[in-house]
């Protein structure tokens, strides 16, 4: 007697892959990555890259996840590079955009559909979080020696609040538009 073939997309995921999609696990993983990037910077860059690699190994669909990291993380990297170019941020060694901050943005790009999914349905809350939480994180990073502000503190925080109050809702829009829910790659050759 033969058993029917099970569509691999519908088959249950191994425990680790199920775990990677849990909001609490993503929050813990992201916070661990935040500490490695902000506290360890270049000294823990290999660990940060390893954590991102671990995430990519655990997610059920790597290709859409890599596209999500490229788009959302790339936008964050581009904006922070722009802020660095105009002198808001100054990084150790005079680099425009350090590798550890690129890793942090790639890690953040995993959160809109997981640990920070609640912001996606509330653009006003995403705007408020962008205006308050993002500048606070950079302020915390400055207190830990990860970044210096080239402008007076109040101007740096104000420009970040303005930029991120617009950008964070836009990132959620892009996530919702292109990645949520992540489409299961169909093996069915017929169009539906």
Provide a descriptive summary of the structure in words:
With 192 residues, the protein is an all-alpha fold. The chain has one domain. 62% of the residues lie in helices and 2% in strands. The chain is built from 7 helices and 2 strands. A two-stranded antiparallel sheet has the order 1-2. The longest helix is centred in the last third of the chain and has 27 residues. The protein is globular and about 50 Å long. The relative contact order is 0.14. The N terminus and C terminus are likely disordered.
Specify the oligomeric state: single chain
On the 0 to 100 scale, the average pLDDT is 88
- Rough outline: globular
Q: Could you tell me the strand content as a percent range?
A: under 5%
Terminal CA distance reads: 32 Å
What's the tally of helices?
A: 7
Number of domains: 1
Spatial strand order of the main sheet:
1-2
The rounded Rg comes to 19 Å
Question: Main sheet?
Answer: 2 strands, antiparallel
* Overall helicity: 55-70%
Which class best fits the helix and strand makeup?
A: mainly alpha
Secondary-structure element string: HHHHEHHEH
Note poorly predicted spans.
Answer: 1-12, 182-192
Task: Report the count of strand segments.
Answer: 2
């Amino acid at each position: 007697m033969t058993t029917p073939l099970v569509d691999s997309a519908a088959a249950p995921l191994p425990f680790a892959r199920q775990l990677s999609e849990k909001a609490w696990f993503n929050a813990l993983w992201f916070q661990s990555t935040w500490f490695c990037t902000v506290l360890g910077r270049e000294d823990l860059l290999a660990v940060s890259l390893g954590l991102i690699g671990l995430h990519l190994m655990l997610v059920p669909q790597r290709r859409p996840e890599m596209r999500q990291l490229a788009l959302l993380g790339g936008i964050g990297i581009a904006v922070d590079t722009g802020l660095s170019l105009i002198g808001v941020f100054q990084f150790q060694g005079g680099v425009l955009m350090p590798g550890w901050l690129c890793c942090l943005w790639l890690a953040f790009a995993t959160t809109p559909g997981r640990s920070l999914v609640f912001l996606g349905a509330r653009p006003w809350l995403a705007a408020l979080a962008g205006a308050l939480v993002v500048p606070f994180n950079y302020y915390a990073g400055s207190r830990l020696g990860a970044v210096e502000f080239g402008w007076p503190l109040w101007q740096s925080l104000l420009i970040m609040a303005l930029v991120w109050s617009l950008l964070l809702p836009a990132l959620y829009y892009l996530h919702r538009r292109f990645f949520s829910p992540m489409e299961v790659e169909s093996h069915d050759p017929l169009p539906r």
